[in-house]
Amino acid sequence: MNNKTTFITASFFALTAVMLGAFAAHGLKTHLTPSQISTFETGTQYQFMHAIGLFIIGLLMYHNSAKLLRLASVIMTIGVILFSGSLYLLSCRTVLGIESWTWLGPITPLGGLAFMMAWFFVLLAVWRDKT
Description:
By secondary structure, the chain is mainly α. Helices cover 84% and strands 0% of the residues. It is built from five helices and no strands.
């Protein structure tokens, strides 16, 4: 992804993290257990943190157009979708009628792995920068 696409994705993730957080606090409290609300909130927290991470990557791209930063942007985006998305679905399985979707559980750690890989690529890109 280029820096403009990275900024657009970061903005979308930040916007939807705030919206989903408000929805959990006000719309889901009566439908989910405290544990499910906590899981949902973890999803919004990681989504928001990694939206900020994408903003940082986008800013770094102005200075360094390394392929590693573009790769980090893509992988971090995938991480948000897998990690936060799976937590949203896991916490709302009963409400959504998808209790049988047992494959959701293993998706969350794959998203976490994507986060780690993305941050590692940012580290490598900055480390290798000659300026």
